[in-house]
Design a protein that fits this description.
With about 160 residues, the protein is mainly β. It folds into 2 domains: about 80 residues, Beta Barrel (Elongation Factor Tu (Ef-tu), domain 3), CATH 2.40.30; about 50 residues, no CATH class. It is built from 3 helices and 11 strands. Strand 3 and strand 4 form a beta hairpin. The protein is globular and about 45 Å long. The two termini are about 30 Å apart.
């Protein structure tokens, strides 16, 4: 579980394709204070398991299904990524509780900026409407950042 509050910006050091998907090597600083092999780290909002640690770099492996459902398929060497360690029972929950498990992809179709705030209009596949349901708001996790979205089922279906 994560809060959606980015702890630091890391950098992709290496991307290696393999039979099962891709292997990413990511450099960081702050998150290594207590990071261990097997820990979960949010990388741009996607929950990743640390499989190796070496000299302020960690490795995570992604299977094809994860790559299909996330933007990680587009990650390139040298790219910056948002990082957050998983919460613990002692963690202050300053954000929201999110899993980092990806259900679907959306596309930003419009951004309105006014009075120091930004409104994002996001479309997603029709078969994903049941993920939203008839709620007045829901939380989306985008690139490791929490977004509180306001809408209704009727608005979603008519757009």
């Amino acid at each position: 579980m994560f809060t959606g509050l980015v702890e630091e910006i890391g950098k992709i050091i290496n991307v290696k394709s393999c039979v099962t998907g891709k292997i990413f090597t990511i450099a960081a600083d702050k998150i290594f204070e207590d990071l261990k092999i097997g820990d979960s780290v949010s990388v741009n909002g996607v929950c990743q398991t640390v499989t190796n640690i070496n000299n302020k770099q960690f490795i995570c492996e992604n299977v094809h299904e994860t790559l299909k459902k996330t933007t990680m398929k587009y990650f390139t060497k040298g790219q910056n990524v948002n990082l957050e360690r998983a919460v613990t029972v002692n963690t202050r929950l300053g954000g929201h509780i999110v899993q980092g498990h990806i259900d679907t992809n959306g596309n930003i179709i419009q951004i309105n900026n006014s009075n120091g705030k930004a409104e994002f209009y996001i479309s997603f596949p029709c078969e994903s409407i049941d993920l939203v349901g008839a709620v007045s708001f829901f939380i989306a996790y985008s690139d490791g950042l929490i977004c509180l979205l306001f809408s209704s089922c009727a608005e979603l279906l008519s757009s």
